[in-house]
Please model this.
Amino acid sequence: MKAFYGDLKLGILGGGQLGRMLIQQAINYNVTVKVLDPDREAPCRKLCDEFVIGSLGDYETVYNFGKKVDLLTIEIEKVNVDALEQLEKEGVLVYPQPRIIRLIQDKGLQKQFFKENNIPTAEFQVISSPQQLKESHIPFPYIQKLRRDGYDGRGVYKVIDESYLAKAFTEPSLIERLIDFEKEIGVIVARNESGEVKTFPLVEMEFNPDVNLVEFLISPSTLPFEVQQDAAQIAIKIAQDLKIVGLLAVEMFLDKHGKILVNELAPRPHNSGHQSIEGNVVSQFEQHLRAIFNQPLGDTACLNNAIMVNVLGEAGYEGPAVYEGIEKVLKCPGVYVHLYGKALTKPFRKMGHVTIVDVDREKAIEKARFVQQTLKVIS
Model:
């Protein structure tokens, strides 16, 4: 492989905020970055060396883009995998590997992978028709998920009883037993081509119940050591079973009985790892680059208590973004604001995030609550 710090051309499929933060880290390694995205106003457009406008789902567009780079990675899973497989056959390095992206694109295949590899997960059933949904062996209430294209809370429907079936998804889906969980937790794990594997410390998450988005995240976790160790081992097993090259976010539930159940996977930097930019020795974005460039993985230890707050567009506002309260937030010590460069806001759109670090955990949480109440994206 060409020297990653000089003559290697890295391609990123997707020009959103994850790509933007990946580029910010790649700049430190003198990496040449090209980005493909359908939106001419995408957050990456001004940071990369070359920005290409085009569909991520179109075979020819993805193939032609990939032929002009040495290594291809993603910041979103909804891409044309057929093109990636052909590029891989022709010698272009594609990380994460196309077979893994194909698996992750289909939540049904994900669940089958968990079952076949003894990964703990909620009881589930793959559904191909509305009639099959009515004849399900999983009792109410349960969660229905579209097999494809669901993200950021979309494509998820809670079925409480039979009366809810009228509004259930008719497309291919899966249903899973509703988990009475204590916490939503996550572990980010990285693996390079040499087989080195490292996890970031477990994080605890709170979700916005209206849109099922991560709203608040705290690191490190104060859950019992055994729980943290078990979660890390599950993440490592998944990374090794997949033989993934790159970063993998493993979202999990901790149920009322202390059992860990894996919910979903994301083979890329993830919202649940943003606090690592200020809160850990190495960030998730640098770790992803180290992994795909087959370099030694970095130290993932926490430097401090770190809280991550998502900055979402306020309900009732749509148009040019105005960040109300940002001056008050910036007065707080240990507060780091990350804006994603999205010109237009709309309800619950991810517009940025704020990380709060403090040696005192309770003070960090107090500041995070202040940020949540103060920083609003309106128009």
Remarks:
- The first strand starts at residue 9 and ends at 13.
- The longest helix spans residues 225-242.
- Residues 181-378 form a domain with the D-amino Acid Aminotransferase; Chain A, domain 1 fold (CATH 3.30.470.20).
- The CA atoms of residues 27 and 317 lie 34 Å apart.
